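Incident log entry.

Two folding requests arrived from the same account within the same minute. Monitoring flagged them as a possible duplicate submission, but the sequences differ. Recording both here for audit purposes.

Request one:
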Amino acid sequence: MSLSEQADIRDPLMIAEGWMNEGRDLAIATVVETWGSAPRPTGSHLVIDAEGNFEGSVSGGCVEGAVIAEAIEVIESGKPRMLEFGVADETAWRVGLSCGGKIRVYLERLG
């Protein structure tokens, strides 16, 4: 089963609620804009805890590693940020969007 298929089975917002009830520090990443061949639609979520555990998907596996690393910093600082990945961006080849497209992800701390 692919990462995107697994993300469709489990609701990351429900997972986030359970993790918050456990007292975990969390961040949520939300797809706010896509263009071209971005594999996840706007409104898709990735929930990340301070240890780097995650549920959901913002790109079907293309940029999750980079988003998780940024999320840990957002959890620590409490400051939200907008992330952008795409073929015009110098990180495109590193994170795997070489097929084209663009994705903007808003990242914020929960709780």
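Request two (distinct sequence, not a duplicate):
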Amino acid sequence: MQTVGTSGQIEQDDGECWPATTRAARGIYAAEQTLKYQALRGESKPADWPGGGIVSEGFTKDDGQWYWWQRYFDYLTGKV
């Protein structure tokens, strides 16, 4: 579930979009402007959220993947 799925690290369509995104980021338009990724905007649990975990309501972004890699880094460096 953590590797392939709705909050996973990879999905079937990622094999196509990530290389295309990388190529676009090297282009002339990207060199002239700041790219707004909108990831890691912070936690914002709904007022009636019953559970734990890191929760952000609103537009879907890649925060799940960022938090996973941050937690993994903490594990590898002995912070957890």
